Amino acid sequence: xxxxxxxxxxxxxxxxxxxxxxxxxxxxxxxxxxxxxxxxxxxxxxxxxxxxxxxxxxxxxxxxxxxxxxxxxxxxxxxxxxxxxxxxxxxxxxxxxxxxxxxxxxxxxxxxxxxxxxxxxxxxxxxxxxxxxxxxxxxxxxxxxxxxxxxx
Amino acid sequence: xxxxxxxxxxxxxxxxxxxxxxxxxxxxxxxxxxxxxxxxxxxxxxxxxxxxxxxxxxxxxxxxxxxxxxxxxxxxxxxxxxxxxxxxxxxxxxxxxxxxxxxxxxxxxxxxxxxxxxxxxxxxxxxxxxxxxxxxxxxxxxxxxxxxxxxxxxxxxxxxxxxxxxxxxxxxxxxxxxxxxxxxxxxxxxxxxxxxxxxxxxxxxxxxxxxxxxxxxxxxxxxxxxxxxxxxxxxxxxxxx
Lengths: 152, 241
Known about the structure:
CATH architecture of chain B: Orthogonal Bundle
CATH class of chain B: Mainly Alpha
Oligomer: heterodimer
Helix content of chain A: 25-40%
Number of helices of chain A: 5
């Protein structure tokens, strides 16, 4: 997959087209504007309930391995990333989308995995090679769910 | 991408520092630490005469003295072959070349028992691997492995095991990955397993290639981890979550 990326996309305020896939599974394209991907990937509509399930699913998003989620009754939540509670107040949908797709566009040192990227990865296990961690539909589902978390 | 220069790792702590007090007491108590079943089996194998050849104890008499401290110096470069050997590798080499017996095989009950036994003879002694001279290229390869991002989740060992030590990954607390208790009895396995088995679990966690038991990649990483853990005591057989 070829993709051009600015060194400081946020500072430069550049809009870059990314995600032109050449592998077996071509990724849908998306457009970065500032620190956000304002438009849904592939024009897909997200679903809140599915998004909540992907966040919790240990085989899919597995978000709670690192983040404290919005449901305090869930046992054993992570403490690495920011809590998900209130994320919809802190970030809009487009900003959430970019942080899911590839947070390294904002911070090259981030520990947040890129959930919608297949290029510039090393020693990926065969079962996962050439495909993103989440599909475009799953990204959109999670965006809708996280954007709904507006409680304090 | 170039990683930022990170501050030197804080004092590397043993995995035991991340155990609950109850588990730490169980680990220290030979009558309650299940890893000692493997140690006992290894002690028996050490004295058992194979179909041909001699028992280990014929050459290594008085192992509590003669092999005390041996495990603190592994992995090490084998002078004759130039290969990096961990303790398992040295045991297998002895078995094949000196005892002319078939290798036990990675992760076999016998090799785990022998390794746990010999490492247990160094319990409490400080790790002291060579990382210079002939070992230097292996150490550097292990360091590079530790520092590079891997897998679909694009994480390096360093990002978690230097930068996020003490943080929670679900119910687990991230440690330095000192590795000084292996082979260890791990609750998740309900068994004793090797350090390389533990490394394979980490690789799977970031959805990266799981290298083979005894692979050059994991051997080099084992040496780097042992070098980082210099002066920490050997704790085999440790209990780990």
